[in-house]
Structure formats: structure tokens, C-alpha cells
User: Fold these one by one.
Assistant:
Number 1:
Amino acid sequence: MTKPSATGQPRPPGASVSPTPSLLTTFFDRPLPLYLSAALFRLIFLLYGLWQDANSPVKYTDIDYLVFTDAARFVSQGQSPMSERHTATPLSSPGSSSQPPTSGKVLFAIADLVAGWLLEKVLARSMDGPRARKFAAIWLLNPMVATISTRGSSEGLLGVLVMALLWAVLERRVTLAGLLLGFGVHFKIYPFIYAPAIIWWMDNERMNPNKTKPTKPPQSTSITTRIINFITPARIQLALISLATFSGLNIAMYLIYGPPFLQHTYLHHVTRIDHRHNFSPYNTQLYLSSSLPHVSSSSPPTFQIEKLAFLPQLLLSTILIPLVLAKKSLPTAMLAQTFAFVTFNKVCTSQYFLWYMVLLPLYLPQSNFLKNKRFGLAALVLWVVSQGLWLQQGFELEFLGKSTFLPGLWLASLGFFGVNCWILGVIIGDVGSQ
Amino acid sequence: MRERITFVQKEGDSIEPSALKVDGSGLSGPEVKAVREDRLTFALDELPAELKALLEGVNQLHIRWVSPIAYEAVSPLLARLPPGFHLFYTPGSDTSINPCPLLNKAFGTVSCSSPAESFTTLPTDRFTHSTTHQFYQPLDSLSAFTQFAKSQLCPPSSPRSCGTRLNSLTKASQLDISYDAISHTLRLTSLWPYGPQSLSATLLSPSIRTEVGIISTANPKTLEPHEIGISGLLTVLGQSTAPSPTLFSFPSRHRDAASSFTSKFLSPTGLHPTLQLSISSPSPPSKSPNPSTCRLHGYFTLPKTIFPDRHQLSDPLFLSSKNLSSVRYITPNIDLEAPEYVTPTWGSSLLLELSPPPSQGSQGSGDSKGEEWTAQIPLHLRYLSPSLTGYRTAEVPYPALFWACTAEEGTKFPTNPFEKDKVGYDGLFGERTVFWHLTPRPGDGTNGRLMNEVKVPVLDLTKADWVNALTGVVVALGFGWVVVKLLGVAFAGGGKKVDKQKKTQ
């Protein structure tokens, strides 16, 4: 197996782009123009944000960033960052009091660039450099991504973590993958869904391609041998290292911050009600069921559907999608898992879209959306329009004070859910037709 | 037990001693325009058993109730609080003692369950005189308390006047109940708004020392700038046979700024309503001896339906665009997500320093329309429980607005006979601060109430029948579609065919 160099310079093994030189192709010919413009792009956003924050009462910086930097200041002062709003591990609060609040945003912007670079490295495994950079540009030059990170959202850090994890796995760097997986789960829980896909993908043939005996295992292997075959050194290594990293970090945080750490980092997600309007199809139902015990006139609650919400979500994202897709295409499997996790989640805000957006460039080259441009455009329009409908209802509620919960906001969230399911289905189908 | 009845007339008003009839059982006279204040002081042993048992375990308990109906304040009774039921509380050594059951019983709809759950904690490191806990909720009337007081204080054998006097509490504009473990006395003070009052007081029992005063503000030449002068007639029922004239003065922390304000929500309110204060004058009180030390403040008690976000209120640029200067105090750890129906604490208090625009006119702080200015306070609504109309109403009391001015070094403010302390904001200022109050004026369409209403969109229960089922069906369909696609890929062929068909279309 030939490993393309980091910058993806020479000898493209895959399909090549059209040889006619244009400004666009020369732009992607070398890495410098892309990364320079991606960095410049973020620098402009960052400086503009600083200017707006300093000159306008309407702030560019996300209000959650203030919570975040507050928490960071507490950490640097040796205090606990657990405040009313900070619901994450203390490790997500970098920086120190001596640093200006911009340092966090710079970190997030750099994380964006590193994620893009790793994206290119992963892409370059199956295509030439310029083409890989072209797809990496979907992330690197994406205004939504740049805005979210320069406004100070830490979601961008997830992008670099997930991309590094995928790259480490594809490079068979099991120890590094284990460390990243354990850290990722500690950092933001949801990356645990990648564990089954990675484990399933890591079979002996993949991990030791040269050692594998030419004699393929016969069709009729007993269940016991299958299980024994499943337990490979690489799988054990990954499981042990990621578990050790995850528990090590948790124990350390617990020793430093005590029980509030558990409450804010993990238990919070169990006890929270998540009633405030968001894209999730469960949202209206959650508001309804959480409030029913407090409405005197209401009938005694019967069976409530959201109690089972975890079932379709986890079935798809941790079992079915990994089983069916991981061995066919690990990156697309991870994309589909994330997409399913976000779509079927009990809370869904636009920041969560970043979770799968980083994986999108890995799938698009083989996708029907790109092969059939009209189809792709239609899907994009559907996704944007169904989201727009929800946002319109949300605006009427949030800013005009109209009671749009029912039916408007509810139907809009179900519509958006439907569109997302359809897109997920197409992604899955595309893996099958590869 | 002691009683003090005071009729406070406006400055310049007075009554001739000869107009009053004093005999062994009481005092009577003509009808005058005045504020009436009744103060009853109980020793612990004189209280009903249940109340006594509670207070014995309490360090400080102060109830301040203010009617939502706008009233005119008369010097020296000038202290103001947002209308509603306020409680300032410091537990005794046994912190498990719970005043809530008795409060619920006494005031009717006070929704507190226990100090740990319902109260907020106050900073005690700043000034030692403040209590450790706070509770507030809007409360329109004292009718429940009147019934409770009658059941406690007027046994069936008592004269009819007992019930009649307590019934008049329903017309009171303020009620203060104060207990602290040092004095071991419970003081109950009620205040009736300025208006026609018949000058009459009867001795409840010969054993109760009852003092009646008819007073008004006076300005003797010897008066210091931080003092209020009082002149009038004092009578001790059963002891004196005629009222005796009196003249005295005392330093007072609460004064009248001689300006006013109204408060309203800007529309559309949405889920992030802005409360706008319209203030008649940007200038500090002209009567203040040291106006340069004065800063305009707003003290807000916000019920749990609505809350301020301290992060939003931390940016100087944002604040100044709203004519605000800084947050002086905000209840810590306000939950920014939880819906109202699962929020156990009463709400939050907020002390804001306002930033008046530079005054153009003369230094006088008259109500000239040209100088009126506004300040905006951005707030956020919690989700409220669903209703049958899709909307609910949240009520937010007017804030207390005052200029806080610092008296000169060495000025002492010993407790005066008309002192109203433990008003929430006084604990957040130093001992030498004087509060010059702005008069709250009810806005249009508020029926004379000092409450701002905001219409909150909630889930409409009449449309909610299908939510549970249809959400389930849609999720199941979405899930099913994805599973079918997965099966297509797993048992290769199916998925491919479908896709190829799609491609050829």
C-alpha cells in the first residue's frame, strides 16, 4: 500500500482533475494558497469580530464564549469552572487569565485549519493532492465553519479531534487512535459512537495486510471461532488505551473538582429537560411531557414517546450503521453515524451540524449528490428550505412572541427531520453502490 | 405588647390640640388627610405557639409587603420596594427550621417549599447588617393574611373591634413584619396610603402601652442637611389627658428625589422582552447636600418567570447603549435554561446602576417633560407550562429607583423611629448611603398597578392531542426508511438497483 506524503504531492493514484489549467486548478495545485486563504479568511472574521465587539452593542462573539472564558479564568485561578451554564469538562476551558479572551477563538480557528489539513491527508489516500484540497476546501473555506469558530464555539475542536482519530485509525496508529478516542469521549461524550465502527473496521486483514494468510477463512466457521477471530490484538489495544485515557481523565477531573464535575460534565445530560425550541423532532413532545405534571388540568400522562428516543438513535448510530457500513467505508460510516446521532437526538441545534460537516468532504467525492449535480442541488435546497421554515416559525416565537409551538414549529421540526432521514438514506445507499 | 399609631400629614399641615378629645380609653378627632401607620410590638411570649416556636429558631426574619396599587409616599415614610411579598431571612443555628409552611398558611399563595429550595442566598461578606437569604413573589393583597391574623389574634371572646381593625389591613399599602434574635421582639407595622383618615384610636387593653402621634415634616433652622424634622402632637393613651406638642429631628437614609418614572415592556416582547424605564429627570436630587456622589440605581426583584443574563449585562458598550452603567449586584447562579415549572428558587434580584444622559437644563430636578429619558433592561423569559390559549401572562413588579448618595464622612445614621430597613438594596450599600427615591407612576392601561405584564407564548394544549402519537409515527417512519436502506446495503444488490434506477431517471 502506498502512503501519499503528508502534503499529498506526488503521483496521484486515483482519479485526476481535468488537465486544462485554470485559476481554480492552480489555486489547488499547491497547499499554500488554500491554507493561506483559509487562515486569512478566519483572521478577517476574527478581526471583524473584535471590531464589532468593540464598537457595536450587538456582539459578534457568542454569549456562550463568555461563559467559556469565565470558566477558563476560574481554572487558571485554581478554582472550579462549574458555573450555571458551563456544561462540559473543565478541559474544554483553555487559556489563562493573562491571555486576552481572543486566545480561545484563535485556538478554535487553528483547530479548524488543522482539521482541514487532516481532512486533506485522509482524502489524499484515495486521490491526488489538488483534488483532495478541493474537497478539503469545503471545510476550510466554509463561511459557516469559520463563523462558528471565530464567534468562539468550541465545537470546532471536535472537528480536529474526530479527523485526527479517523486519520490515526486509517494509518493504523492504534495507540494514538485510542488516546484520541478516549480524550474525545471525555471532551464531548458523543464521539463514543465511533468506537464500534472503528473496532469493527479493525479486522486482522486490515491491520496486518501482509501477514494475512492467503487462505480465506472457510464459509462455515463456528460462532466461537468467529468470536476468537474477532478478538484481535489491535482491537484489544484500542479498547484498553481509549478506556484508560477516558477513565484517567475522569478520575483526574474528579480528584480536582469533586462531584460537581460529574454533575456538569455527564449527569447534566441525563437530568436536563431540553425543552427550549430546537430542531429536534422530539422538542415539542419534550416541552409537553416535562410540563404536564405541572399543569393541573391535564390528564395523567400515558406512555410518552420521548422515553424511547435513545433507542432509534443509538441503534442506528452505534450498531446498525457501523455493522453495515464501517467495513465498506469507514469515513462515510462515521459521517452516517454522526448524521443519525444528530438527526435522532433529543436536542439539535445548528452547532451540532458542525459535527458531521467535517466528515462531509470525505463522502462527497463518491456521492450521488455530486455525481448528479441537480439531485445534489435539490437535496441542498430541501435541507436549507426545511430549516428555513423552522427558523421562520422560531423567529415568530422568539422575537414576535407568537405561540407557534403548535402546529408550526412542531411540523417544521418533523419536516426537517424527514429531510434529514432522506439524506441519511441516500448517504447509506451510496456506500452500497460504491 | 406595645402599640404606636401615627398619622403623618404633609409638610405644613397640622391640627390644633384643642380639636382632639382624649379620654381614658382613647383619642378622637376630625378627619384629616394623612398616612396612617400602626405598629404593634410583641414580646416572644405574647405570640401564638406556632409562631413562637418558629421564631425561636430563627436569627432574622423580615417580611416586607408592598401593594401593587400606586401610593403617594409622605416624609418621613419614604422607603420604597418593588411591590409584592419580600422576605429577608437568616436562619438560626438549626438550619433545618422551615418557615415556609407557616408563610403559606399566613399569606395564602406564597409558593415557597423550604429555604434551601426556594430562597436565594445574599452576600454576607459586604456589610454585616444584611440577611443571608431572600425570597420574593408578587402578591396582590393581604386578604389571606387578614383572615389568618384574625384567627390568631382575635379569639371568639374578643370584641368586634378586633376583627374590624384587622379587616382594614386589606386596604393597607404596606406591611412590615420584623423579628430578630437580639431584640426577641416581633414588630408588625402596617401603613395606609395618604388619604382621608379619621383621627381615632382606642386602647386595646389597659395593659398595652399605646402611643398616638399626629405629625408632619418640619424644617427648623437647626436641621442638618441629612436630617428630617418632625413636629406634631403625641399622646400616650390612658396616661396623658391632653396631647403634648413635640419637635424633633433625626438623620434619615430614605428621602424623596422629587422626580418620577414609569416602566413598561417594549413590544414585541417575544421571549426576550426589554423593560423600559422612562425617567423624568437625569439630574440628581437638588436637595442632596452632595449631589456629585449620587448615582441612579434600579433595584429589581424578578420572579422566576423572567431573568437577567449577567454575561449579556457585562459589556460596557452594550450597557451604555441601554443607558445603563453597570451591574452592582445580581443573584448568583441563575439557571439560564430551566423552564419556570421546574425552577424551585423564587427568581432573582438585580441592582443596576443607570447612566443618565448629561442634563441640558438647569440643575433643578423638576418633572419637565423635555428632560425625560429612558433606560432599557434586557431580560429573558423562561418557558411556562402550557395553557388552553397558547399564552400565559407573567407579571414583573416595577423596580425601586433611587439615587444613592454618600453622606459626608462621619455622618451616622442611627435607627430612627420611622426607619424602614431590610429593604433588599440597603444591604448592598455602605452605612453612609442615603437613598433618594423616585416616585413610580403606573403606566397607561395598568389600572393604577405598579406591575408590568408580559404575554408569554406557551404550548397550546388544545392542539397538543396528536403530538405524542404523531411524533412517534414520524420518528418510526424515518427510522424505518434508514433501516430499509441499511438492509439494502447489507444484503447487497437491493440498494444498488434502487440507486441505479434513480440514476437513470
Note: The CA atoms of residues 272 and 290 of chain A lie 10 Å apart.
Number 2:
Amino acid sequence: MATIKLENLTKKFNKVIAVNNVSLTIKDGEFIILLGPSGCGKTTTLLTIAGIYRPTGGAIYMNDTIMNDIPPRYRKIGMVFQNYALYPHMTVFENIAFPLRTVKDISKTDIKTKVEELADKMRIASLLERKPSELSGGQQQRVAIARALAKEPQILLFDEPLSNLDAKLRIIMRGELKRLQETLGITTVYVTHDQSEAMALADRVAVFNHGILQQIGSPEDIYYSPRNIFVAGFLGSPSMNFLSGTRLIKNEGTAYIEKEGKKLVEVPSKNLDKFENAPSEDLILGFRPEDCKIVPNDEIGIPGKIYLLEHLGREVVVNIEAFGNIFKVIADPESRFEKEQRVVLKLKPDRVHLFDSKTEAAVF
Amino acid sequence: MTKGEYYKIGFLQRNSSKIFNVTVYALLIVLSSPIVLAYAWLFLRSFSTGMAHGFIPTGLTFSNWRFMWEQISGLPNVWHVTFNTFILGGSVAGVVLLVSSMSGFALSRFAFKGQGKLLLLLLMLHAFPTVSLMVAIFYILRMTHLLNSLLGVILLRASMDIPWATWIIKGFYDGIPREIEWAGAIDGYSRISIWRKVLLPMVKPGLIVIAVFEFLSGWSEFIFITTFIFSNKWWTLSQYTYTALGGYRFADYGLLTAISVWYILPVTILFIFANKYMTQMSLGGIKG
């Protein structure tokens, strides 16, 4: 199969730097997701891997061969686009057969067998004579995947494949994609802006912002140990709560994070040595909505008052106003809270994140 | 709103569109009647011995159509002329299609310096009246030894129409998402085969429109024929009809109408077949 290596990959459009000095290695058979907001360079990176764009700087290797100037058709890749990019004038059969027709010495019966096999696999066998315009979004998606698989590519590329589907179908297709990739074991690069998709599908996630690779790691890594504020805020829904203007204080051998004289949370002693290379003033405290408890009163914690309750069935999102911010906290739907009620947010000390407000990098 | 009001509004809404349609059709019928009547008269006159009071056929005859099997003095063989006309129309359509299908693609897809200005210039070129160029064209044709040759007229007519056709087909290419080309590239095709196998079929409605209009453009070409063709060996039907009309020897309206009907007949047939694509174009291009 195939490995991919990007080495200081840079892509400029005139003066705009779309991808800035990105280096990453994708292992054979790995499912890697490029995640980030729109305009962050993830799609450009994907199209450069595909060979649609030529890198301005750096190099792309596939199986240790440099691919910078190799046209897409020699790269042994299959690609699925957001708008599916099916050929509207061809039937489903013709669409899937189209890549096969470039294979040397392939017979008509071989093409037919192969197309039917793929159609079976993607469960579109009954649609082969239809035109793409006669298919639903989900069916078009299946055709696009079948077409991408036709030439048995070494690498599969997906560009936001699920974002044109409705929410329910998206969850179904997400599962199917994951299963398909696991069965085929094809190295897969998948672009999305949907963090839950990334968490659900990826072996590893590469988070992009402003053309720069922010962090790469397993979904757990990225979620539990974000390297900077951007990554911390991009993953998770509701997203991480941030409180700026906090600092580190030490009191009788115990360290706390405090703001305006109020002790917010204890700092575990294992994290103290991380302050050697970081400031102890002007810090940003971060905590996830699920990593805290709402209590009526406590010495240590964030004091605030309940601003809004969002009942979501399985859970309730409690909005708490404190220090002029609104914090979102996930609570048990059984719990009885009322608006305007004064409460204290009790954070889990080992789940708290701290960021340097100047560099936005995580202290821990 | 009361129920009564509700129904009243419903009634107006349902019927106002009907009233509107009837009005529009009535207006269109009145406006187009002179043309329709003129063609009807032309057709009837070509098969009748004469017209009483100007519009009632007096008797059936085919003698008006004798130019098809007899030599008419002062006019060349009509079959030869018709053949020439087909050659002219077909070749103009062919040349324009060949060039514009490529130039339109280039203008749609490749960003280059001065692209916007070039597009504007293309439109301006089309706005120039052809007559103002006649002298210059004469010199060019003489230099290239294309005077008195059908090839010269073919190239002239094509060059006059290529800007327009390029503009039209560019619009069709613009409507094709880039991803389709990318998919073709990934599926294993070179740029030229993507253009041929994927893009050309997708802009087919545009190509058909251009083919029809350019065939017509060549079919009805008159000024270049009458100016740059000196031998009736290269005449086309426009010159043939003009000569028949203008020749002082003729006061034979039967013959003239028959020739006119012969001249417009192929065009009418072409339009009937191409109608589907023409209306598609006015809706603005490609359907997904």
C-alpha cells in the first residue's frame, strides 16, 4: 500500500500563503483527518497531495518517491469531492467505468465485472443505468466512492464528503466510511471542518489554522492535551470554556490558579514543573463543559450565577455567568437548577488546561 | 382576513395568471401576424398560377419550381448553388466550433494577464459593422489569393463570428465546476482527454446552438459573396436569390417566390430540429 510524507510543504496563491511549511507523515493504512475552519489550508493540502496543485515549496513523498511534479493520473489515488463531481452526461455505470477505461488492455467484460462488484459493495447495483441527476445526495455519494475505488487506489482522498448530506444520513455514511476504510485498509486522507466527524473517524487528526499545522495526534491526544488555545477551542461541542487574566499563586505549599483574589482551582503538583518555561501571570484558564461540577457553595471554584438552561434531553447545558463571561457546563438533567441561582463551579484539577495568553500555547 | 376575502383573492390569483397569459398571447399573435402572413403568402404563391386581389391563389402549378429542373437564363444551376451554400454554412459552423470550443475553454479556465480586457475586446470586435472593414478585407484576400474563392468567404465569416461564439461557449464552460476536471485528472486522463471526453459533452447544448447559428450565418451570408466572389461557380443561394429578384428580365413572381421558399426551407427544417437546444440556451446553459 502507501505511505505519504509531506516535508515543509508550502503552497502560495499569488501572495496568499494557503499552506505554510507543513510537515507530516502518514502511515500505511492510516485514516488521517485534516481538520480546521474554512480557509485554513486543509483542502489545499489535500489537493496538493492529489497533484491538482503543485507545491510552491517543500516536497510530497509517496512510498519515499518524490511526487511534486507527477500528474494526478500517475499517483494511484482515488478521490471523493464535496459536490461528488460525477460526470452528469454519463450513467452511473459509465461514471464508475470511466477510470477503468484508462487501464491498458482491460476487456469490456472485465470492466463490467469490476463495476458490478463495486456497485454491489456500495449498494447501488439497481442504479447503474441512471444519470447522476436522477439520484439522491446519498446515492451520488455512493457512486462517487465506487468511482474512487475503481482503480484500486493506494491512497483515498476525501474532501468534505459528508457536508452536503442531511444530518441523519451523515451519521450513517460516517459509519459506513469508517467500516469501508477498515476493511480495505487503504491509506486515507480526509478533510473536514466538523470536529465530531474527525473524532469519530480518524486514527490521527491534523488540526490546521491559517495554513499552519497546529497539532497532530490521535483524537484523544488532541482532545485531552491540546497544544494551544485554537486546538482546545476547536474540538468539542459545546467548546472549551476560557477565562483570561488568571495567575498562579502558591499558598502553604499548594498551588492555585486565581483571579481577582479568588482561588479558582488547585494545580496538581505534577504540573508545577511546567511553569519553569512559562509565565505565572496573565494566563488563560480552560476547562471543558463536562469537566466540572456545579455546587451551591465552596471555598475554591468559580463563583457565578445561572444565566440560562438548555435542556437537550440526555443532558442539560447550564450557562453560568462569572467574571463577565458565560461558561457552558454539562449537567445531569435530573439536577434542579434555577435561573439567577448563585452557584460555584468546581473544576476537576487534573482536567484543567492553562494557556499563555501571549503565545496562546498550552502550559498544560 | 374573512373566508370570503380569502376566496376572492384566491380567485384573482388563479385567474389573473390566466388573464395575463391570454393577453400576452393575443399581443404576440397580433405582433407576429405580418411575418406569419408574409411567409404564408410566399408559400402559397410559389404553388399557384397567380393571386387574385393579391392574396387568393388562383390555381395550382409547379411551373414556378421549374428552376429546379430547367436552366434559367442568367442564373447558374440551382443544385450546384445549393451545394455551395451547404458547404459555406457547414464550413463556417465547423471552423467556428473548432476554434470557439477551445478558445472559450481557455478564456474560462486559464487566468492570464489582460484576460478581462481581451474579453471586452472580443465583444467590441463583434460590434464593428462588417461593411466598414470591406476595403481592408479586400486587400487581405488579394494578398492571400483568397479572392473569388469560397474558402475566403468561409474564413471571413468564421473570423467575424468567432468572438461571439467564444463568448457564448465560455459561459457554458464557466458553469462546470472545477472538481469535475479534477475528478477526470485523478481518474487517469490527460488535460486534452478530459476536455474531449468530459467537458465537450457537458457544453454540448452550447455547441449545438453555435453550430445552428453559424450554419445560418453562412447560409445567409450575402455581402462577402457579392463583394468578393466574381464567378457564379462559387455563388450561394443568397446571391442566386438576389440576382433572381433584381434581374430586370423577371417580373415572374411565381418563380421568385419559389426560389425564396427553396432558400428558406432548409433553415426552417434546421430550426425545427434544433428548437429544443435553442430554448435550453436561453435558460442559461447546463442542467446538472
Note: Residues 282-288 of chain B have pLDDT under 50 and may be disordered.
